[in-house]
Task: inverse folding
C-alpha cells in the first residue's frame, strides 16, 4: 500500500507563482486600453446630495467621464425593488446618503494619477440630516427580524436561582477585515450585453449570479476571473456597490475600467465585523454543574440591510446545560453593511461565553479547564442529536500538556518572571462543519496528466494543493501530474469559499469525480484490453497512473490505455453533496486555545509569550497548509484580543484611525512562537475524506484565552476588547500601593 | 535649490499644483496654436496629449538589470510606475502610505517602500523587484525557503516579505528569531504567516535546506 498523499505536508502547488510575483491578482491584469477609476465619497453621514459639479473634473487632463446618480446607466435589477426596501445600497440609484464614505461619483481617466486628481475636483453639495453612529445611544432602536428569533430550552433565566452565579457585559469594537489586497474590480463590456470581470471574490459563480440579476443579461455572457485573491476573511463574500459603480462606468465609456480603492475606503466600502454588546449570565451548582445560561447580544447594522450572524449560536450547544435562552438584536446606524469576518458571529459570541465560564470558575474555585470538562456536552443539547465526531476532550488534554497547564498557580496575580506578571489562560471554540454542493470536471489526457476544474476560490488556505492531494489518493496518479484549476466562472459550479467548507464541499466532489474517472477507465480496459476482460472495476488496482489486475500480472498505464484507443482525453464530470447524515448527526469542528502572557506591571502592556492551539477538525488533508491556517487564525485572534479597534468620531460619523498605522493589525514582532496540534481523527460521516472545517475555529475563542490569561496575570478582568494598556493601568496604582 | 526655500516662493492663495496646471494648460494651448489648425484646438483630447508631454520628465533607471530611459509625470510613485507602466505587477499596493510593506523593492540594494518614493527621485538608481530576484529558473534561496516553510497563505504580501527578507539577511539583522521579528515588522501579513516567515529566514541564515 502506497503512503497516502492526504495528511502529508505537501508544498503548495502555486507556491512558485506566489514567490516570484507571477501570481496575478485582479488588479494585475491589464486589458488593452484600460482606463482607471477613482471614487468620490460622501463627507456627510446622513442626508441627500443637493448638487454635483463636475465641470472642473471633466476639464482635467485625460478624464473620460464622471458618473453619478445624475447620469449613470440604468440598472434593470433595481426596478424589481422599491427604494426604502432593505435591499442593500443601490449605488447611483438616487441622491440619498446613508453613511459616511458612501460613493457618490466615480471618475474615469486614462491614468490612475489623473483619475485620483480629477476626483478631488468634483464638488458635491449636501443637504445634511442628523446621523446616528453610536450603538449605545441607539439601543431604543434595537429590533429583531425573523432570522434572529429568541431561543430557549428548559426554564428561561434559570441561572438566577443557582447557588453560584455570574453575570456581566462584554463588548467588542468594530473590526475591519483589512486583507492586504485592496478591493476593487476591472470591468469590461465587450458588447452591450457581454461583460468580463477581473474580481476580488470568494466565489466567481455568486458574482455571476448577482450581476445577472442586476443587469439582466444571460449568465453565459458574464465571465468572472478570480484565480488569485489577496486575502479576504469574509469581505469578498458579496458584490459591493463599488464594483457596481465600476461596471456602470465601464458601460458608459465602453472601455475596460479598473478601480482599486484606498486603504481608508476599505473601512467604509467592504464590510466589517459589527461592534457588539453582549450580556452573559450563568448559574451553577456549588460543585460546578451549569444550571442555566442567558445570552443577550446586540450588534449594529446599516440602515438598508439587516446583517445577522451566529453571535449566540455557540451558547446553545457548547455546554451540557438544561436551561438556556438567547436573544439577539440589531441596532441600525448610519454605517455601511457589515459582513462576516473570520469566525463570524461565533468569534464574537465565544469571547463572551468563554470569558464568562472563566469568571464563573474563579467564583466556584474550580479550575477553568476542569469546569469545561465537567460540563462537556457529549451529545448536542440544542438539537438532541449525537455529534458526528467530537474530540474536544482530547484537544483539551493535548493543549494543557503542551502549555504546562498543571504547573500554573491557579491564584490570580500569583506568578512572576523577569519582573513581569505571568498569566495562563485557555478557551474553546466551535463552528459548524458544513458540506455544500459542488461540481468538478476531470480531464485525463493521453499524456497521463489529470486536470480538475471547478469554479472554487482560494483566498489563501491552499485549495488547489489540498484538491491535488485528494485526487492523487483516489486515482493513484502522482501529484505532480495533477492540476486543479479554480477561480473561473466558466468552470463547473462551486459555492463561495466561506464557512470553512471548501475542503468538505469541493474535496468531496473531487473524490467523487476521481472515482467516476477510474470507473470510466476500468470499463474502457475491460471492454478493449483482453487481459482485463474477466475483471470488474472494483477488482482493479489503481496505482502510479496504471490499472493493474488483481493478481498483479497485467498492468496498463493511463497513457497506453488512451493512446491504444486513440483517445486524446477522457472527461468525466460529477456533482457531489451530502445526504441524510446531516439529519442524524450534529456536525461541528472544535478548537482549544491556550495562551501564556506577560503583563508589564508598570505600563499594563500585554505580550503573548507562547500559544498552543489544538484543533479537532477531522482528518487533516495537508498538515503544512492546515498549520498555516491555524497560526493565521491565532494572529487574527491576537489582533482581536490586543489591538484591533476601528474608532468612530460620532460627531461626524467618520473613522479616525482608518489606516494601517492607526488601526493596528498584528505585525511580526507582536506574535510569539505558536504550537499547533491536530487531533487528526477522521469524522466518519461528514464526507469521504473525514475532514471538518478549520479556517474559523482557528480564531474562534482565541480572544477569550488571552483575556483569561490577562486576568490570571493581573487579577483584572477586561470585558471590553481590545485589551489595551490603559485598561490595565490601575495595576500600576495597586502595584504602588503594595510596594 | 536655495531659492525654493525662500519664504517668497510659498504660493499665494491659489493651490500651487492647480496654478501650475493652469499654466501648463495655457502654455500647451499656445503650443497647439502654433502647431495645429484651430479646429484641433477644440478637441480637448489633443490639448491633453500636449499637456501630458509638458508634464512629463525624463528619468533613467536600471530595473532588474535592464537600463531604461523613461518619461514620467513627477507625481508618479515608483510603485505605480512599476505596476501600471512597466507591467511589473509582482510588487503590490497594500496601503500606498508606507504602512504595510507590500510594495518593498530594493534600490541600490537597500529595501524601500516603493509607494513612498517618486519615480523621478530614483534617477540613475538600480531597482530590483521580485521579478528580478531569481536567477532565471533558479529561485533565490529565500524564495525557496518561503515555499518550503509555507511563508504565506494568500501570497499578496509575499513579494514584499521576500524582498524585505533578502535585505534583512544582507543587513545582518537575521541573527535570531527575535531580531528577525523586529526587522520584518514593516511587512504586514494579514493571513498571519509570521511564524513560517521567521522559520524561512532562519533556515536561509543557517544555510540549511531542512524543512
Result:
Amino acid at each position: 500500500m502506497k503512503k497516502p498523499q492526504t495528511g502529508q505536508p505537501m508544498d503548495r502547488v502555486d507556491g512558485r507563482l506566489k514567490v516570484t510575483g507571477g501570481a496575478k491578482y485582479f488588479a494585475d491584469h491589464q486589458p488593452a486600453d484600460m482606463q482607471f477609476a477613482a471614487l468620490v465619497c460622501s463627507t456627510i453621514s446622513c442626508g441627500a446630495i443637493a448638487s454635483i459639479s463636475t465641470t472642473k473634473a471633466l476639464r482635467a487632463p485625460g478624464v473620460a467621464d464622471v458618473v453619478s446618480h445624475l447620469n449613470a446607466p440604468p440598472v434593470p435589477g433595481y426596478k424589481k425593488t422599491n427604494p426604502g426596501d432593505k435591499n442593500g445600497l443601490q449605488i447611483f440609484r438616487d441622491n440619498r446618503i446613508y453613511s459616511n464614505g458612501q460613493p457618490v461619483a466615480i471618475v474615469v481617466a486614462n491614468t490612475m494619477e489623473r483619475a485620483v486628481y480629477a476626483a478631488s475636483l468634483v464638488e458635491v453639495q449636501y443637504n445634511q440630516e442628523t446621523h446616528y453612529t453610536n450603538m449605545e445611544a441607539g439601543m431604543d432602536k434595537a429590533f429583531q427580524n425573523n432570522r434572529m428569533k429568541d431561543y430557549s430550552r428548559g426554564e428561561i433565566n434559570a441561572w438566577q436561582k443557582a447557588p453560584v452565579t455570574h453575570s456581566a457585559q462584554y463588548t467588542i469594537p468594530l473590526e475591519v477585515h483589512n486583507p492586504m489586497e485592496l478591493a476593487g474590480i476591472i470591468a469590461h463590456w465587450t458588447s452591450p450585453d457581454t461583460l468580463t470581470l477581473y474580481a476580488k471574490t470568494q466565489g466567481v459563480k455568486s458574482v455571476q449570479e448577482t450581476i445577472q440579476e442586476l443587469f439582466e443579461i444571460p449568465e453565459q455572457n458574464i465571465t468572472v476571473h478570480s484565480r488569485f485573491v489577496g486575502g479576504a476573511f469574509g469581505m469578498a463574500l458579496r458584490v459591493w456597490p463599488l464594483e457596481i459603480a465600476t461596471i456602470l462606468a465601464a458601460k458608459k465609456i465602453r472601455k475596460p475600467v479598473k478601480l482599486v480603492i484606498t486603504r481608508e475606503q476599505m473601512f467604509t466600502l467592504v464590510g466589517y465585523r459589527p461592534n457588539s454588546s453582549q450580556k452573559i449570565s450563568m448559574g451553577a451548582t456549588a460543585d460546578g454543574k451549569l444550571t442555566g445560561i442567558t445570552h443577550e447580544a446586540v450588534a449594529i447594522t446599516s440602515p438598508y440591510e439587516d446583517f445577522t450572524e451566529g453571535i449566540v449560536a455557540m451558547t446553545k450547544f457548547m455546554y451540557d446545560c438544561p436551561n438556556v435562552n438567547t436573544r439577539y438584536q440589531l441596532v441600525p446606524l448610519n454605517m455601511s453593511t457589515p459582513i462576516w469576518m473570520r469566525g463570524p458571529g461565533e468569534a464574537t459570541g465565544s469571547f463572551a461565553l468563554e470569558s464568562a465560564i472563566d469568571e464563573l470558575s474563579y467564583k466556584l474555585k474550580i479550575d477553568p479547564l476542569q469546569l469545561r470538562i465537567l460540563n462537556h456536552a457529549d451529545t448536542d443539547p440544542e438539537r438532541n442529536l449525537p455529534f458526528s465526531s467530537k474530540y474536544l476532550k482530547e484537544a483539551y488534554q493535548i493543549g494543557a500538556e503542551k502549555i504546562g497547564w498543571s504547573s500554573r498557580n491557579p491564584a490570580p496575580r500569583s506568578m512572576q518572571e523577569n519582573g513581569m506578571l505571568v498569566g495562563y489562560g485557555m478557551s474553546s471554540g466551535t463552528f459548524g462543519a458544513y458540506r455544500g454542493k459542488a461540481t468538478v470536471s476531470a480531464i485525463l489526457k493521453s499524456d497521463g496528466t489529470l486536470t480538475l476544474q471547478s469554479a472554487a476560490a482560494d483566498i489563501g488556505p491552499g485549495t488547489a494543493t489540498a484538491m491535488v492531494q485528494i485526487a492523487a489518493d483516489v486515482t493513484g496518479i502522482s501529484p505532480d501530474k495533477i492540476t486543479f484549476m479554480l477561480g473561473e466562472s466558466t468552470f463547473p459550479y462551486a459555492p463561495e469559499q466561506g464557512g470553512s467548507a471548501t475542503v468538505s464541499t469541493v474535496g468531496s466532489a473531487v473524490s467523487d469525480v476521481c472515482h467516476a474517472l477510474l470507473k470510466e477507465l476500468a470499463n474502457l480496459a475491460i471492454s478493449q484490453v483482453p487481459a482485463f476482460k474477466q475483471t470488474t472495476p472494483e477488482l482493479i488496482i489503481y496505482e502510479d497512473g496504471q490499472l493493474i489486475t488483481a493478481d498483479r500480472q497485467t498492468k496498463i498505464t493511463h497513457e497506453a490505455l488512451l493512446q491504444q484507443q486513440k483517445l486524446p482525453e477522457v472527461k468525466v464530470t460529477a456533482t457531489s453533496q451530502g445526504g441524510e447524515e446531516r439529519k442524524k448527526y450534529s456536525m461541528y469542528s472544535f478548537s482549544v486555545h491556550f495562551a501564556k502572557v506577560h503583563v508589564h506591571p508598570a505600563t499594563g502592556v500585554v505580550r503573548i509569550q507562547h500559544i498552543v492551539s489544538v484543533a479537532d477538525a477531522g482528518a487533516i488533508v495537508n498538515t503544512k497548509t492546515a498549520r498555516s491556517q491555524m497560526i493565521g487564525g491565532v494572529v487574527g485572534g491576537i489582533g482581536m484580543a490586543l489591538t484591533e479597534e476601528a474608532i468612530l468620531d460620532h460627531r461626524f460619523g467618520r473613522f479616525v484611525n482608518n489606516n494601517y498605522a492607526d488601526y493596528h493589525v498584528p505585525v511580526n514582532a507582536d506574535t510569539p512562537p505558536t504550537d499547533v496540534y491536530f487531533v487528526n481523527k477522521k469524522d466518519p460521516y461528514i464526507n469521504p475524506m473525514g475532514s471538518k472545517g478549520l479556517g474559523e475555529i482557528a480564531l474562534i475563542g482565541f480572544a477569550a484565552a488571552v483575556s483569561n490569561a490577562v486576568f490570571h496575570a493581573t487579577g483584572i478582568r477586561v470585558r471590553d476588547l481590545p485589551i489595551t494598556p490603559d485598561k490595565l493601568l490601575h495595576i500600576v496604582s495597586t502595584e504602588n500601593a503594595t510596594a | 535649490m536655495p531659492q525654493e526655500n525662500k519664504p517668497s516662493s510659498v504660493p499665494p492663495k491659489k493651490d500651487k499644483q492647480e496654478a501650475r496646471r493652469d499654466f501648463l494648460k495655457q502654455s500647451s494651448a499656445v503650443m497647439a496654436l502654433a502647431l495645429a489648425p484651430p479646429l484641433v484646438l477644440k478637441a480637448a483630447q489633443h490639448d491633453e496629449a500636449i499637456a501630458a508631454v509638458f508634464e512629463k520628465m525624463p528619468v533613467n533607471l536600471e530595473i532588474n538589470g535592464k537600463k531604461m530611459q523613461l518619461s514620467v509625470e513627477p507625481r508618479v510613485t515608483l510603485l505605480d510606475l512599476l505596476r501600471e507602466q512597466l507591467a511589473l505587477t509582482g510588487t503590490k499596493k497594500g496601503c500606498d502610505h508606507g504602512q504595510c510593506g507590500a510594495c518593498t523593492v530594493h534600490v541600490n540594494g537597500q529595501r524601500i517602500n516603493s509607494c513612498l518614493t517618486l519615480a523621478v527621485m530614483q534617477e540613475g538608481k538600480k531597482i530590483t523587484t521580485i521579478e528580478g530576484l531569481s536567477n532565471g529558473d533558479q529561485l533565490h534561496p529565500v524564495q525557496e525557503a518561503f515555499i518550503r516553510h509555507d511563508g504565506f497563505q494568500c501570497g499578496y504580501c509575499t513579494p514584499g516579505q521576500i524582498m524585505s527578507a533578502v535585505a534583512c539577511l544582507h543587513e545582518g539583522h537575521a541573527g535570531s528569531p527575535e531580531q528577525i521579528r523586529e526587522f520584518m515588522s514593516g511587512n504586514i501579513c494579514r493571513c498571519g504567516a509570521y511564524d513560517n516567515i521567521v522559520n524561512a529566514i532562519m533556515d536561509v541564515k543557517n544555510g540549511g535546506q531542512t524543512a
About this structure: The two ends of chain A are 68 Å apart (CA to CA). Chain A has three domains: 15-21+436-577, 31-130+181-230+236-267, 276-434+583-738. The first helix of chain A runs from residue 15 to 20.
